[in-house]
Write a structure and sequence with these properties.
This protein is an alpha/beta fold and about 325 residues long. Helix content is about 40%, strand content about 25%. The protein has eleven helices and 13 strands. It has a six-stranded mixed β-sheet, with helices on both faces. Strand 11 and strand 12 form a beta hairpin. The chain is globular and about 70 Å long. The two termini are about 30 Å apart.
Length: about 325
Amino acid sequence: MIEARALRKVFRVPEKDPGLVGSLRSIVRRRTRDVVAVDGIDLTVAAGERIGFLGPNGAGKTTTLKMLTGLLHPTAGSCQVAGYRPQDRAPDFLRAVTLVMGQKQQLMWDLPATETFLLNRALFDLDRAEWTRTVEELVALLELGPFLNRPVRTLSLGERMRCELAAALLHRPRVLFLDEPTIGLDVEIQATVRRFVRAWNEKHGATVVLTSHDMNDVTALADRIVIIDLGVLRFDGSINELQLRFGTGRRIVVRGDGQALAGLEFTPDGSGGWQRTVLASAVNPVLQEVLRRLPSADVTVADPPLEEVLTRAFGEARQQRSAG
């Protein structure tokens, strides 16, 4: 469904010296420098996959998404999405994809969301009966009924985001590019959005490419993790493979008298318990000592949080780039 080979994007950025003299000089002789945003990415995504496309700020995630949706032209390399070259912006390609950005909106501010729905039906030349069925399905799944006919400017952020999702899916795209879809939303609406995206993927077989800094989005929606940093692909695999490669071991959490754990290097976990991350080979000896001191303690062992693993992965990626 998505095929990228040696995908590269370089931006030419103007430079000038500070002050009035620098500004005047830049009029006569403009200096520029090249900034590499994406540097030779190879990526294949099958139909129906859900991938988390992750990286720190400035890694090149959004630039890559914009090339895959045709908003930017690659400087070099090639990509195909749903059988089309995105930069051609062919009508059939535009019907096959959608891009939802958590900080952008397509809804008309002073009109109800239904007006945007009608506009999109005309833009995509959708059959009225099919469009009506799709609207009814989206309204039910996203629970839009109570506010669907109110002006968009009167809606809460969560209500607007659900309407944005509906507007973006009216043409039933085969590929969903979601850029920070839950940013700024409260916990309840975030959960609603995640459930909806997963249900849509499972029911319609749509491919989902997600970028997010919220690890709850990633764990709920992504079966595969792709990490990009400084424009270069650094990891491609499952969450389990990510844990094995970048995880620091296993996390032991103890609920009990912290004083009894003195000397065992446990620290508060922020919720009344005590935590320590150790290598897998050290789990049993530490557990034995904890239970010797606190026989009735509530003890759990789990993988480290995904945030911790990704922080380590990002750091290692930057070290590799610096060494290269």
